[in-house]
Amino acid sequence: MLIKTEKDIVDLVSEDEWMVAILYAAKSLNLPDWWVCTGFVRSKVWDALHGFSKRTHSPDVDVIYFDKSDLSEDTEKELESKLNSLMPEVPWSVKNEARMHIINDIPPYKSSKDAISKFPETATALGLTLGEQNEIILTAPCGIEDLLALKIKPTPYFTESEKLAEIYRQRIAKKSWKSIWPGVEAIQSNV
Questions:
Q1: What was the pLDDT predicted at 78?
Q2: CA torsion, points 96, 154, 185, 8, in degrees to nearest 10?
Q3: Which long-range contacts does 58-61 make (Cβ < 8 Å, 24+ apart)?
Q4: Please, are residues 90 and 22 in contact by the beta-carbon 8 Å criterion?
Q5: CA 144, CA 48: separation in Å to the nearest integer?
Q6: Which DSSP helix (H) or strand (E) runs through 37?
Q7: How many domains does the chain have?
Q8: Weakest mean pLDDT among 79-83, 98-102, 103-107, 159-163
Q9: pLDDT tens for residues 152-170?
Q10: Which sign, positive or negative, has the C-alpha torsion 41, 149, 46, 4?
Q11: 142 is in which domain, residue-wise?
């Protein structure tokens, strides 16, 4: 499959029964401003671009939402438990982005999309949700160009300070994405 546009990515996901089931499970929680994001989307695209016939292993499936009315970590754990009861084979991770600025010691996010725009890498600054008619919706606040070009680059947010640039560099070293997807190229952050 040729992947050039956001629609191509949505079409790729819509053909993957496992990914669609994950989106429906996440939607069943009725969370405000929810998205399944990061590696869930990136890995599918990179697998396709590398011609892999099997899905690469993912350490977790990230579900995010935005709810200022309940900043409890216990709520996130309860939501993970609900998802585990629906799909126990999936390594769920649920985070309320209205709370994450406290954990990460950064200014508060305005929404889940704002949080996604401030993920470390442009190729992981992606999310999927289901619309009112269960149509798959992709958000890519940093674009899809780097994702499709197999480039790992810092999001603009992660070039704003040396501290953030260092976090980006450590992630690149730790993730070893090139050992999984040989065609990817990591661009170092210069702050």
A1: 98
A2: 60
A3: 58/91, 59/91, 60/91, 60/92, 60/93, 61/22, 61/36, 61/90, 61/91, 61/92, 61/93
A4: yes
A5: 15
A6: strand 35-37
A7: 1
A8: 103-107
A9: 999 999 999 998 899 999 9
A10: positive
A11: 6-149
Q: Report the CATH number at residue 102.
A: 3.30.460
Residue 50 lies in a domain: yes
122-138: per-residue pLDDT in tens?
999 999 999 999 999 99
Residue 173 placed within a domain? no
Q: Measured over all CA atoms, what is the biggest interatomic distance in the chain, rounded to whole angstroms?
A: 44
Q: Identify which of 123, 133, 142, 138 has the alpha carbon closest to the alpha carbon of residue 7.
A: 138
Tokens 């309320």 sit at which residue?
96
Q: Which two tokens stand for residue 145?
A: 């160009």
Is pLDDT at 19 greater than 70 in this prediction? yes
Q: Is residue 191 part of a domain?
A: no
Q: Angle at Cα 88 formed by Cα 82 and Cα 92, nearest 5°? A: 65
32 in any annotated domain: yes
